[in-house]
Structures are given as C-alpha cells and as structure tokens.
Design brief:
This protein has 123 residues and is mainly β. It has strands at 4-7, 11-13, 18-24, 32-38, 45-50, 57-59, 67-72, 77-82, 91-98, 112-113, 117-122. Strands 2, 4, 5, 6, 9, 10 and 11 form a 7-stranded mixed sheet that branches. Strands 1-3-8-7 form a 4-stranded antiparallel sheet, with no helix packed on it.
Length: 123
Amino acid sequence: QVQLVESGGELVQAGGSLRLSCAASGGISTYVMGWFRQAPGKDREFVATIRWSGSGTYYADSVKGRFTISRDNAKNTVYLQMNSLKPEDTAVYYCAASSRYYTTSSGYEYHSWGPGTQVTVSS
C-alpha cells in the first residue's frame, strides 16, 4: 500500500481559493485517487475522484463546477483545486487511493488514506 500526506489546507475567506496537494510515498499511476472530507459532527463524504490515467473524473454535486481534481503521476501527487469556497466547505480533507479500475465515490473502495488537512472557510 502507498502512504499519503495531504497539504495546503488553511483558513480562507468565502469566495477564495485553495489548492490541496496529496503526496504519495510510492507510485500511484495504477491507482484511482479520491478526495473526501469530514466536517465536525458529520460523516465523511465524497468530494472528487480521478482515474489512473487522469482521463476520467467524477465530482460530488456540492462541489461540481467549483473544484477540480488532477494528478501528476510522474510526481506521485494528486491535487484538488478549490474555487469559490463557501463556509460549508469547512472540513478536514482526506486523500485516498483505490485499486479499482474505475472511479468510485465509495470510501470503502479505498485502501490507503492520508491523515488529512484542515480547510476552514470564514464567512
């Protein structure tokens, strides 16, 4: 399994932008990669996922049109560009890796997780 570490989370005002990064200890070129988040008192929820080749992406309705997932397999890194941030985007954001062939929004399909990075959006 691969080890993942997220970075880039911070306090930002509503309407602002952030780019999260997820660095892997090993190669991720064969993995589906995903971003999830968990707000205080809420269950973890799916945010975005990207296929191993980068050609297929899928987003939660709540972030569609505002967030963009991308990957650089040569750098073993996955990104989440977040624009037009809202207070309801406040959460700990997690990066995860899956051995599935197709993208998946189910957290149960991911076998490796990072420790998370805090994103706080002030109103």
